[in-house]
Structures are given as C-alpha cells and as structure tokens.
Amino acid sequence: MTVPTDGPWLDDAAGRLIRPYTVSGGRTRPTAELDLMSLVMATGAASEMYYGPEHSEALGLCQGPTSVAEIAGHLRLPAVVTKILLSDLMDSGAVTVRPPHNFDNPSDCSLLEAVLDGLRRQL
C-alpha cells in the first residue's frame, strides 16, 4: 500500500482510501448549478471557513480559468463530488464560476472539435 503524505491516500489495488461521500461530508448535491464545462477561477479572497485538503487542492487548481471536468480529473474524484467541493468554495467567495464561451450551443461542432483536439493531445 502506498500512503503519500501530501496527496490523497491511495492503495495500489483499491484506489482512494477515503471514499467520495466522506470528502463531500455525505452530501449528494452541490448548492450551485455547475456544468462540467463551467470555468472556475480563484478570487484571492480569504475564506473564514475551514475546509478539508480536497478543498485546498481544488482551490490550488483554480489559479487560472479551469473547467470543472479538469479539476475533477486532477483530484481523481467523481464529478458530482468535485461540484460539491467547488460549490462550497463558491459559497465562501473563494472562487467564481462562469459558463464557457460557447455555452449558447453546447452541441456546437467547433466546441466538440476543440474538446477532441485537447483529448488527442493528452494521449
């Protein structure tokens, strides 16, 4: 078993040792409507609320506009859990969220081609 001191606790065979419902405090729904393509950015405002390490890690990923899907991928958490973490940060004023540029038509071919190109570059 591998137990890093600075990241999520992982077991080589089982994955995360801390289950997603624990990370979200048992909540199943975020307080704000977030789309996977929504762009999240840190405001720089100090939060008075205490958050767990996953909140801090998510906030660190938001230094520039970052999509909810990308944050979920980096955190290795399900999208709904990531949305809950981000909605907590939104509620405290630590991050702002805006829809992507082409949100008027999410089935726009140029948007889908840009996503496909991005995925191909990752391979």
Automatic annotation (TrEMBL):
PANTHER family: DUF742 DOMAIN-CONTAINING PROTEIN. It comes from Streptomyces camponoticapitis. InterPro entries: DUF742. It comes from the Bacteria. Pfam families: DUF742. This is DUF742 domain-containing protein.
